[in-house]
Design goal:
Blueprint (H helix, E strand, L loop, with lengths): L15 E6 L4 E6 L5 E7 L6 E2 L12 E2 L1 E5 L8 H11 L4 E2 L9 E2 L4 E3 L14 H13 L18 E2 L2 E2 L1 E9 L2 E9 L24 H5 L12 E6 L5 H18 L11 E6 L9 H25 L28
Parallel strand pairs: 6-9, 14-15
Antiparallel strand pairs: 1-2, 2-6, 3-5, 3-15, 4-9, 7-8, 10-11, 12-13, 13-14
Helix pairs in contact: 1-2, 4-5
């Protein structure tokens, strides 16, 4: 397996990404082909906010989903999934109620997860169905540039990572003939920086932050923060194996965040495959894909944090790099 982790979620063929960035909150939509994606899910945190996750269990009937919604706004933000469904229905994407080739309604299958960001910015400002539709149109148009962007956009607009600003991050890696990638909204209660060394837990090769400046930062009140995301591949995994990728992807959260999966987090990862076949892969291949899943989730969290910009009373990692801060108190930028 390649050891190079970089890139973005759309390195997996068949995926597109769209965002609605609303300043202190937002929406990100991961869109598959009209035929849908094989999908599973694994929830580890103590305070999840999710929608349509039960149907992803391997023993349930629905085999494929058409999009995954990641949003801010806590439970209110789940309303954005209505807009995703409406927009997909308008372009003829969804599960055919009467069967393929027969005229009738289509139901888009859109699992969703949300982060708690209500204490960042305006607590009454939450994503709506209109914002979900806007992010979906962006993904459908696939006009390019924002699909590669990371940091303070989409569902990551209001994210915090311990005492730092979080965000939306991406990473990918090649595993033999396949690609494994992740898109993560990094919004954990736990820290992403080791206070003793100033290094990121998820990548000790990056420069340390100024430890004195880091120590002066004020911790926001503990709340139901949550890290959410998608692990994607073009390997022909079946539904159970897609869940396995989501499960092992949580190891990436544990590598990058201390502590992870706390009672105040609702950590949720979806596993998806864009391959039209869902026949499954051999155990040896699944082992390699699983290892990659943990690596790209960890790398995506690092990407989210290092790409974020200061705002809403939160200081971003780049502002604290050694040699780039003054000896005075850190005043977080407001926006």
């Amino acid at each position: 397996m390649s050891s190079v982790v970089s890139g973005s979620l759309i390195d997996v063929p068949g995926l597109s990404v769209g965002h609605a960035s609303l300043g202190d909150t937002g929406v990100s939509v991961i869109l598959g082909s009209p035929q849908g994606m094989t999908a599973g899910v694994d929830v580890r945190g103590g305070g999840p906010g999710t929608r349509e996750t039960d149907l992803l269990e391997p023993y349930n009937t629905v085999e494929r989903v058409h999009a995954v919604l990641l949003a801010g706004g806590s439970a209110f933000g789940l309303a954005a999934a209505d807009g995703v469904m409406t927009q997909l229905e308008a372009v003829g994407i969804g599960f055919p109620v009467l069967g393929e080739g027969v005229s009738g309604p289509r139901i888009p299958i859109v699992p969703a997860a949300v982060i708690f960001d209500l204490l960042v910015g305006d607590p009454t400002h939450r994503p709506t169905a209109a914002d979900g539709a806007a992010a979906t149109r962006s993904a459908l148009e696939a006009t390019g540039s924002q699909a590669h962007r990371s940091g303070s956009l989409g569902a990551g607009c209001g994210a915090s990572a311990g005492v730092l600003r979080g965000g939306f991050g991406q990473a990918s890696i090649r595993v033999g003939d396949y690609v494994v990638a992740a898109a993560v909204v990094a919004n954990p209660v736990g820290e992403v920086v080791d206070a003793e060394t100033g290094l990121l837990f998820g990548d000790s090769t990056l420069p340390p932050v100024d430890r004195a400046a880091f120590a002066r930062l004020s911790r926001p009140p503990a709340s139901l923060n949550t890290t959410i995301g998608v692990v994607a591949t073009d390997a022909p995994v079946n539904k159970s194996q897609a869940k396995r990728l989501a499960m092992v992807g949580h190891d990436g959260i544990a590598r990058a965040v201390r502590p992870a999966h706390s009672p105040l987090d609702g950590d949720t990862l979806f596993g998806v495959s864009t391959n039209e076949s869902a026949g499954g892969v051999e155990i040896a291949v699944l082992h390699e894909l699983s290892q990659a899943a943990a690596e790209v989730v960890c790398a995506a969290i690092v990407d989210a944090v290092t790409s974020a910009v200061s705002g809403h009373g939160l200081t971003a990692w780049p502002q604290l790099l050694s040699g780039e801060v003054s000896n005075g108190p850190i005043d977080s930028a407001q926006s």
